[in-house]
UniProtKB/TrEMBL annotation, chain A:
CDD domains: SQR_TypeC_SdhC. This is Succinate dehydrogenase cytochrome b556 subunit. It is found in: Membrane. The heme is bound between the two transmembrane subunits. Belongs to the cytochrome b560 family. InterPro entries: SQR/QFR_C/D, Succ_DH_cyt_bsu_CS, Succ_DH_cytb556, SuccDH_FuR_B_TM-su.
Automatic annotation (TrEMBL), chain B:
Gene3D superfamilies: Fumarate reductase/succinate dehydrogenase, transmembrane subunit. Keywords: Heme, Iron, Membrane, Metal-binding, Transmembrane, Transmembrane helix. This is Succinate dehydrogenase subunit D. It comes from Paracoccus homiensis. CDD domains: SQR_TypeC_SdhD_like. Its cofactor is heme. It is found in: Membrane. It comes from the Bacteria.
Length: 130, 128
C-alpha cells in the first residue's frame, strides 16, 4: 500500500462541508415530512377517540385541536401532507423513468416547493371561508 | 459455469425477497393516498369546529367515515413500510429490530383507535 496515491484521490462529498443540491434537499424533505405527519395523525386520532370517550375527554381534545398549538400542528401537517403527496407523485414519474435529468429534477423540486405552499394556503383559505 | 442468464439473475424478488412487493405496495398505496388526500383534508376541514353532537353525527355519515378510515388505514400501512426503509437505513442490529417492532405496533394501534372511534360514531348515529 506504500505506493498508493494519497493526495489526489476523488473525495466523496462530506455532509458538513457540501452544499446539498436542491434535488437532494427536496428528496430528504420527502422522508422528513412523511415521518413528521405522525404528529398530525396522532392529534386527529386522539380527537376522534375523545369524541366517543365522553364530553370531558372531547372538551380537552377539541380545545387542543382549536388552540394555537393545534393550529400550528395541523397547518404544518397540511403542508407536510401536500409536500409528501407532490414529492410522492414525482417518485412515481421517476419510477416510470421520467424527469431524471439534472435540469428536470431542479424544475420539479421548485414545482414541489411552490406547489406545496400554494396548496397549503388554498387549504387554509377554504378552511376559513367554509 | 452459471446456467442462468443475466436477466434471470436480475428479475424476481431481489436479495431480501420482499423488495419488489414492498416497492409495488408503496406505488399502489401512493396512488390511493394521492386520491384520498384532497378528500381527507376536506372531510377534516369541515369537521373541525363542530360541536360535540354534530361532530359525532358528521362522522356517522358514510362519506366522512369511509374517507377518514380509508385514509388512516392505507396511510398507516404506507407509514409502516416507509419507516421500515428509514429504519433499515439508519439503525443496525437490535436497535433496528426494536424500531421495526415499535413502528408496526404503534401504527396498528393508531389504525385500531381510529376505526373504533369511527365505528362507534356510526353506531351512536344509527341509535338516534
Amino acid at each position: 500500500m506504500a505506493d498508493v496515491n494519497r493526495g489526489n484521490r476523488p473525495l466523496s462529498p462530506h455532509l458538513q462541508v457540501y452544499k446539498l443540491p436542491l434535488a437532494a434537499v427536496t428528496s430528504i424533505l420527502t422522508r422528513i415530512t412523511g415521518h413528521a405527519l405522525v404528529a398530525g395523525i396522532l392529534l386527529l386520532v386522539w380527537w376522534l377517540v375523545a369524541a366517543v370517550s365522553g364530553p370531558g375527554a372531547f372538551a380537552v381534545a377539541d380545545w387542543v385541536v382549536r388552540s394555537w398549538l393545534g393550529f400550528l400542528i395541523l397547518t404544518g401537517s397540511t403542508w407536510a401532507l401536500w409536500y409528501h403527496t407532490l414529492a410522492g407523485i414525482r417518485h412515481l414519474f421517476y419510477d416510470a423513468g421520467y424527469g431524471m435529468e439534472i435540469e428536470q429534477a431542479k424544475q420539479s423540486s421548485r414545482a414541489i416547493i411552490f406547489g406545496s405552499v400554494v396548496l397549503t394556503l388554498l387549504s387554509l383559505i377554504l378552511f376559513f371561508i367554509f | 459455469m452459471r446456467y442462468i442468464t443475466p436477466r434471470k439473475a436480475a428479475q424476481g424478488l431481489g436479495s431480501s425477497h420482499t423488495g419488489t412487493s414492498d416497492h409495488w405496495f408503496m406505488t399502489v398505496s401512493a396512488c390511493a393516498l394521492a386520491l384520498l388526500t384532497p378528500a381527507f383534508l376536506l372531510v377534516i376541514g369541515s369537521a373541525i369546529g363542530l360541536p360535540h353532537a354534530d361532530l359525532v353525527a358528521y362522522f356517522g355519515r358514510p362519506y366522512p367515515a369511509i374517507i377518514t378510515s380509508l385514509f388512516i388505514i392505507v396511510g398507516m400501512v404506507h407509514f409502516i413500510k416507509g419507516t421500515r426503509i428509514m429504519i433499515d437505513d439508519y439503525f443496525q442490529h437490535t436497535a433496528r429490530k426494536v424500531a421495526i417492532i415499535v413502528s408496526v405496533i404503534f401504527s396498528w394501534a393508531v389504525i385500531a383507535s381510529a376505526v373504533f372511534a369511527l365505528a362507534k360514531m356510526t353506531f351512536v348515529t344509527l341509535a338516534i
